Amino acid sequence: MDERTLFRAAELAVYYLRRMPDLPVREEATLEELRAALRVPLNDAPLDPVAVVEELVRAAEPGIVHEQSPRYFGFVIGGSLDAAIAADWLTSAWDQNAGGYPVGPSAAVVEEAIGEWLLDLLGLPPESSVGLTTGCQMASFACLAAARNRKLAETGWNVESDGLFGAPPLRMIAGAHAHTTVFAALRMLGLGSNRTEIVATDDQGRMSPGALARILREAEGPAIVIAQAGEVNTGAIDPLGPIADAAHEYGAWLHVDGAFGLWAAASARLRPQVEGVERADSWATDGHKWLNVPYDCGFAIVRDHEAQRAALSSLAGAEYIPPIEHGERYNAEWVPEFSRRARGFPVYAAIRSLGRRGIADLVERCCGCAHLMASALAETEGAEVLNEIVLNQVLVRFTRDGRNVSDEVLRAIQQDGTCWMSGTVWDGEPAVRISVSNWRTTEDDIRQSAEAIERCLRQPVSAR
Ligand SMILES: Cc1ncc(COP(=O)(O)O)c(C=O)c1O
Asked: What is the pLDDT of residue 460?
């Protein structure tokens, strides 16, 4: 073993994390510079591992967007807790295949523990099964596979053995603001991305339960309703209780895409916003967003665990795999993958290091920072906050002399480097989204960022 390489990498990582909060948040290198630095000719001879690591840092760091920064507000991207980063290093050192108990006993039991904790933290039915996926898209994929198979089984069709050839039609119903990854999951499941019946939403992107009930009433047949906790721009949460009423009245499976919004359930103060969430049939959420574990990690949660197992398990017929004898967990039963990274270790460390109170506090602090940012922007001439601040998202439009200059101001903000945020289109017009999802973000970071935003808004175009 070459300990020098491992210690050097740990040293460089710690040195990076120490400097990172003070670095300009954006990347510093251009695409051309990165290609020149990284797309080097393939070497014939082996290289010294320490030199490789040092060279990688030198070449890659200019192209790192500091997503760990307390002033990174792009997309919905969490930071990483120290305990989770450390456990992630150990995950690589242990290099367990988390596919099943015999190849990763601790990885399996850790996922049992995480499953119980998550159901408790999120207030979901304790009988549900939990699988760890790469992210929320794959979590929705896993949940919707279970939903599809179960709903078609109720009509007498066995997708698991016969596939979809000649299967009865299945209705998919989602809100007009459903996340793009839901449609990707449906496409991969052979359900098509264009067959979904779309339910009207309000001005924050929340599904209308009345419109849902009308759509359900209009036609017959097995149906899956896909609701959302946390619209990607506004953070708005669908009215899950009334949606569950409608879905269950018509016998539909209710799936909730709660990539980040489901974490509102971890806070007693925010939990009323997701009231009724526990009445759904499946839930997809992320660890790498609000739980602040390193990429990648999502959770696929299904109330009817037999439906999840039947849809996803890859154990059947594999005679070389030791059989389950004492109820031991095979992670490969709950997710699309067979072999898998033991991404449960960082999750375990994150949850243990925060505890129930720390998780509630993390979620509430991010929401508090979003409120503070919205208040600062509301007082800034030329900035208009477009959303109700219900969670950690702020949606803002910038105007100068009556002209929408959101794109221009966004570029200036990104270039300025104090903070980083991303753009969107809202009501057909460019807008800017600010997502506070990092445990490191403080009120001071928000004040610094709000000042930088104002500076960029004031700056005449010619000054850049
Ligand atoms: C509501 C919602 N669903 C799903 C996703 C996809 O999550 P992932 O990138 O982890 O697959 C996102 C990502 O931002 C999201 O906001």
From this structure: 64
